[in-house]
């Protein structure tokens, strides 16, 4: 146990977040996402599991210790619903509510088409898979700097 660190933070996730540098990205994915095959392309080659947490809880946990990037137009991306890119689902709202609380001034959020998300996730530092059961509950979070 560590002081000031949420007890749900796993050693693997804490190590991953500490190793990431400014501009590195993490793919936060739902329970249906092909996490293992995607992670095989990442720096951390195995998915980090956050069993029992939904996407919003996982986003809150991650952003409790990881700053978001203020130097890019979009510090967080959500996976779009197929054929409905402007639809913002309940899971999107729940996660972006947390992101917007912790987002640095000048940063923003955006969406990415599902197939483009898959390709982008393979370039991330790591894949974090939570127990989110709602469809399209996948996000990319870009690490910022500590001032």
From TrEMBL:
Catalytic activity, as annotated: alpha-L-fucose = beta-L-fucose; beta-D-ribopyranose = beta-D-ribofuranose
Gene Ontology terms for molecular function: D-ribose pyranase activity; fucose binding; L-fucose mutarotase activity
Keywords from the UniProt entry: Isomerase
InterPro entries hit by this protein: RbsD-like_sf (IPR023750), RbsD/FucU_mutarotase (IPR050443), RbsD_FucU (IPR007721)
GO biological process: fucose metabolic process
Pfam name, any one: RbsD_FucU
Protein name: Ribose ABC transporter
Lineage, broadest ranks: Bacteria, Pseudomonadati, Pseudomonadota, Alphaproteobacteria, Rhodobacterales
């Amino acid at each position: 146990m560590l002081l000031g660190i949420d007890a749900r933070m796993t050693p693997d996730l804490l190590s991953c977040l500490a190793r990431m540098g400014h501009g590195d990205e993490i793919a936060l994915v739902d329970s249906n996402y092909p996490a293992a095959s995607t992670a095989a392309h990442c720096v951390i080659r195995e998915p980090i599991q956050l069993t029992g947490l939904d996407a919003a809880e996982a986003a809150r946990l991650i952003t409790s210790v990881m700053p978001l990037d203020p130097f890019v137009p979009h510090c967080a991306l959500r996976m779009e619903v197929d054929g409905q890119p402007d639809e913002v689902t309940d899971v999107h709202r729940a996660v972006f509510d947390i992101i917007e609380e912790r987002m640095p001034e000048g940063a923003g959020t955006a969406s990415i088409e599902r197939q483009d998300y898959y390709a982008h996730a393979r370039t991330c530092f790591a894949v974090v898979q939570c127990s989110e059961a709602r469809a399209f509950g996948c996000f990319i979070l870009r690490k910022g700097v500590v001032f």
